[in-house]
Amino acid sequence: MSDEPNHVKCLVWDLDNTLWRGTLLEDAEVALAEDIRATVLELDSRGILQSVASKNDHEHAWARLEALGIAEYFVLPQIGWHPKSQSVKQIADELNFALGTIAFIDDQPAERAEVNHHHPQVRCYDAAQATALTGMAEFSPAVVTVDARRRRSMYQAGFRRNTERAAHTGPDEDFLRSLDLVMEIRRADEEDLTRVEELTLRTSQMNATGVHYSDAALRSLLGDPRHEVLTVTLTDRFGPHGAVGVLLLGYHESVWHLKLLATSCRVVSFGAGAVLLNWLVSEAAEAGVHLAADFRRTDRNRMMDIAYRFAGFDDSDCTCLLEIAESDRGEVEQRHLVADRRPAPTTMRVTAPTLGSLPDPRTPVA
Fold this sequence. Notes:
Elements: E1 2-3, E2 10-13, H1 34-45, E3 49-55, H2 58-67, E4 78-80, H3 84-95, E5 102-106, H4 109-118, E6 123-126, H5 146-149, H6 151-167, H7 172-178, E7 181-187, H8 193-202, E8 211-212, H9 215-222, E9 227-236, E10 239-251, E11 255-263, H10 272-287, E12 290-295, H11 302-311, H12 326-329, E13 333-337, E14 348-351
Parallel strand pairs: 2-3, 2-5, 3-4, 5-6, 7-14, 11-12
Antiparallel strand pairs: 1-8, 7-9, 9-10, 10-11, 12-13
Helix pairs in contact: 3-4, 10-11
């Protein structure tokens, strides 16, 4: 296990003399080089979102992007006359991404300096580096999953979903019920592992420990009858949200040890985290065990602390915690809960396995 590597989640492009050759307001024609087009498509295929921060007339610039056949590859474009640092921050905020996962590329040193001054976490690149980006480590995920390849389309579906939600005038629960949400919780298999690893890499706000589990670590847990590796997906009438959660659970005689809970920030507003925790609490109650959850504070996961406490976890001591070896706890705080049966959610349908009932017998951890 290691802390989260700092990969780029979104690249923000300048337009004039960066994405295309020429200046839109001065030249009769601007052109898109084929190696730039190839870079845009390759980054998209790797699951890296792309946006625009350009000082131009929005309608004119967007029409040109459409004419060039690449408008669809850019989410949340910021085209206008405000400072580019403001545009970059707006994009990060709307995506709910940390600024350290945003990159910005521009041909003008003054523009890069302005962004860097206000947001030193943002990595800035000269336009001359554009075609070299795909060879850089920060733009090169080790594995590209199914969800990564369709990340842009999932975000674009999310924007349409949010637009409909904003137009909804009734109670929010009515809107959520109208989505026909289905949460599927399943035991991970070999094909799921890369999606699980990617989720622990990409999720920081809703990661209870801020820890990244490598593929090798996950595989060792997958083959251990004392552990569960569970993946969570969500779908609705707009389409799949993809993999939105992962749980790593250790079995003990009188307590289940929740070593990691990570959920995507994209589904926080759907109450997915609460539904997932309530399902786990009910499963523990059915098995007659307590729950112990690891929590390690980071600079971004306060929401997960609140989620645990709202679900009923607290700092109380219990003899069941003695079953968890010190070496298994690591440098984390322990949250404890006496499990009780929770009502089924009213806004989504949940399909899930019954925990503690695998074909292999469960043995207490020494």
